[in-house]
Amino acid sequence: MPRLTRDRATWFAYAHLGLWGFFLYGFGPLVPLLRDEQGTSAAVASLHSTGIAVGALLGGAVFAPLTRRLGRYRISWLGLAGVAVGVVALAALRPLPATLGATVVIATFGMLVISGVNVVLTERHGPAAPAALSEANAACAGMGILAPLAIGAAVTAGPGWRAALAVEVVLIALVAVVALATRVPGPTAPTVRAVTRSTPARLPRTYWIAWLLMAVTGSIEVCLSLWTADVLRSHAGLSAGAASAAVAAIVGGMFIGRLVGGRFALRYPPVPLLFGALAVSLAGFTVFWASPIGWLAVTGLFILGIGNSMHYPLAMSVAFAAAGPAADRAAGYASYSMGIGFGIAPVALGWVADGVGPHLAFLLLPGFIGLAALLASGVRKGPFLSHSVEEGPPPNRDATLSSAGPASDRRPPAA
């Protein structure tokens, strides 16, 4: 069984993804509030999700060339700085075009964070990468639990959602101060360029199947993030503040699922785990969608979150394993799948919701779950889909967040 070793670079990678998760999982409950504030329809409000998609495409396009120039460590911190600037703009500006532009900025820099963290963890931990990616996404979900709760509390208490969003900037500044105080070093640019030059001309077919899988499972997650609060308000009778806070049930389920799933990912291949996760998602959705009672609907959301927790890290681990040495390019292309998920699915659901209501429109989600299962069946065979790899030190340890430091800084603590 592969062993996951968590050193300082790994913990900071987890922190970076957690900071992104605070915004990402808080963004969904914000969209209905922005719609009410700006007086738009559900379809128009969902253009903010399209802004995320545009930013994801831009971030994916610039990640590989920027990584060759700056290195993955600097790219990740550049991403966090850009997210902070975008969040300030989103909180300060009111018109629809301005909030859409701020969303594009946040997503562009956020994709630099995501791509950098995914590549670092995949190369640093080798056969234990699925577990590392699961734990990183658990950190993302764990921070994401706080955002809907903070927004719901701020809306209910009176200051409004902007006060809750300002917490993101404070958290980014705090992590930056800790990093400076502990002097976590980064990789040298020549190491990254050497890895990039050795990449093959084409990514294999299995990578692109996993890419589609990420797009479909991402569609499930973003539709839930953006429109669950509306269903809770219209079908389960919750207030606006309570509905926004209840979205944390999904993220709470994802947090627990990723913590537990990380241990399973060390023992079992990714694809069978993904089938199980999709089945749990379908069961949770059924409870949520069928219940007009608030607490029961929220329970269904929690179960749904447990199932959703492993969709992205497992699909990502399959994609990166298939990509091999082309990790930087694979990470850039992976952001395009997120762009499709954010750009098409929630807009389609918003358009349907304007016609039939959000509750009936949510029946699109079981279709996405079925399509994800079909795609997963296309990658169920492959030498990289088992844990037959012998334990040993992960490859390319020098191309990670802490490779430029002295040997004492690179010595990992016990897992």
Q: What share of residues is helical?
A: over 70%
Q: Give a short account of the largest sheet.
A: none
Number of strands: 0
What general form does the structure show?
Answer: globular
Structure, described:
There is one protein chain. This protein has helices spanning 8-38, 42-45, 47-70, 72-92, 96-125, 129-157, 161-182, 189-197, 205-234, 240-246, 248-267, 270-290, 294-308, 311-323, 327-343, 345-356, 358-361, 364-377, 407-410. Helix 1 runs parallel beside helix 6 (129-157). The protein contains 19 helices and no strands. It is mainly alpha-helical and 415 residues long. The chain is globular. The relative contact order is 0.18. Helices cover 79% and strands 0% of the residues. Mean pLDDT is 80; it is low at 186-199 and 387-415.
Question: What keywords describe this structure?
Answer:
mainly alpha, 0% strand, 415 residues, 79% helix
